[in-house]
Amino acid sequence: MVTKRPESSTTKQAFGLKLVLNAVGDGRRNVHYKNKDLIYRQGDAADAVYYIEKGGVQISVVSGQGKHGIIGVLGAGAFFGEGCLSGQSLNLSSVSANKPTTVIIISKVAMQRMLHDQPEFSEIFMSFLLSHNSQIVSDLVELLFNSSEKRLARVLLLLASFDKHGMISVVVPKVSQDDLASRVGTTRTRINFFMNKFRTLGLIEYDNDTMKVHPELMNVIVHD
Description:
Layout: H1 9-22, E1 28-33, E2 38-40, E3 48-54, E4 56-62, E5 68-75, E6 79-80, E7 94-97, E8 101-107, H2 108-117, H3 119-145, H4 148-159, H5 162-165, E9 170-173, H6 177-184, H7 188-200, E10 204-206, E11 210-213, H8 218-222
Helix pairs in contact: 2-3, 4-6, 6-7
């Protein structure tokens, strides 16, 4: 007798989400982006919510003085652009693909209708918002209390999605040291020093296009 393995909550959630997204109809469209393609720019009209079906994006802002900074990286299964639902008329950040990416774009009107009419979808979306808020708090704590070396290690592990892939080496598109410095909150010189250190220790490997992150990099965060 073969016992059927029960579906995990994650599998059920993904299945339910796909059913609801497929039911949107005219209020949605699928768009494919190449690495580094701009999805929307800071200051563009905020009139849709975006769901990452596969791939990933980076979120950046430019200050009034022209200073550029990366404030987040999101992977498959994440939403962005949700500010339009709270009355935000313009996007407060720019979003671009950091690898080949497929995004489902849901119009503001269609999203509001789904949240009202589809309790299952509303629950999934709320779960994402709560998780995303916790991540923001975690990032702030990281910035306040951890060294730039540990913050860099954490950013690299997040880029490699170790929370999803488990303890295996993961190859990701290479990120510039300027972008890493912006994300970590330190100088490019410090990033260069730690990247060379990590490579010498065999924790990462990289060439002109890709970077391989090894699970042993986790030890930088765990150990003092």
